[in-house]
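Appendix C reproduces, verbatim, an entry submitted by the partner laboratory led by Prof. M.T., so that reviewers can inspect both the input and the predicted structure.
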Amino acid sequence: MATVPLAVHPAFADWDGSIVHARTMQAELAKRVSLRDDFAKPLRTIAGFDVGFEEDGAITRAAAVLLDAETLQPLESQVARIDTVMPYVPGLLSFRELPALLQALAMLGTTPDLVFVDGHGIAHPRRLGIAAHFGVVTGLPSIGVAKKVLVGTAAPLHEIRGAYVQLRHKGEQIGWLLRSKPKCNPLILSPGHRVAMPSVADLVMRYVTRYRLPEPTRLADRLASRRDEEQG
């Protein structure tokens, strides 16, 4: 099992390890987020990323699944397992999960055109959730697909499949609530990097089949949580 010490990981080379400095870094990195569409058209490959934990949190398990953007056929999957680099700190989840996610990305044989990350993009108190942090560090277009609201409020959402409403915080839109499947709780979507706000919901719905989650993060979630192993 490879170990990635946080102190020497390139993504955290300037971090002194303190919570105060991490929040300062978040604010600086958030300024680098681009909210303009800047991804390949047509999309050829997409990828889903998710993180789980093993051994009572001692091991971080990051899953990456690469798919054909047209057929949704899985092309490759990888799992990176590393020693967990820090405890959970509210609002700083990306510092805990990013090292393993970067390793999973490096293990893929093809760089995806667009990445879907289980978690938030800019729908975060400091506008830098895991999908935004991942996008800025890698330079890849990214979208956050979360299951719970971290911050912000929204109007009531229609029950019809594909309905979405703005998620707002402190007077600005930070994402969308999307009804991807009737009679299921909505998904919380937000741009991570190099994707415009108006494009997010349509891009996610493009890859929703009969499940609540879009295929990239659904498959990554199964791999990260080891459900495929349990059912096998």
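The radius of gyration is 17 Å. Additional entries are available on request from the coordinating office.
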